[in-house]
Amino acid sequence: MTQDNGSPRWQLRDIVAYDGWGGTSPEAHFGLGQSTVVDSVLVRWPSGRITERHNVPAHQVLTFSVQPPDLAIAPAGGFSSSAVEVHLISQVQGGEVQYTLDGSEPTSESSLYSEPFNLTPSRLIRARVFKDGVPASDPVSALFLEPYWNDGVPPA
To answer: Is the bond leading into 135 cis (omega within 30 degrees of zero)?
Structure first.
């Protein structure tokens, strides 16, 4: 939002993914008129996260980068005919990682992650980070499948 002669002025730009072939540029340009400072710039990412900058001087290029997720599952899923060691990696200091193996959304009452564990194929793991006084992280999930060939018949 900028102030133009004392009147608030809002501007919005939607940016879609750049595909390199006739797609849109990942840049947004804003006309500020006579304003020399932008009160606030908000970037709302597809994940729902918001990045803010305040009291931004005019006549410059701002670069925003997607923030890393609060939680990652490693490996990120895939095919395996044997158990896979799964790591839940949290970026939230002091947060507790809760997970489920039945496809349900994790709650603060779900299984508490404390160390890597082996997961058999054909399982879906979902996880979230919980911390007192902070909203829960976005849920993340990974699907581990046993490889099947020949129209669903497992290899011999």
So the answer is: no
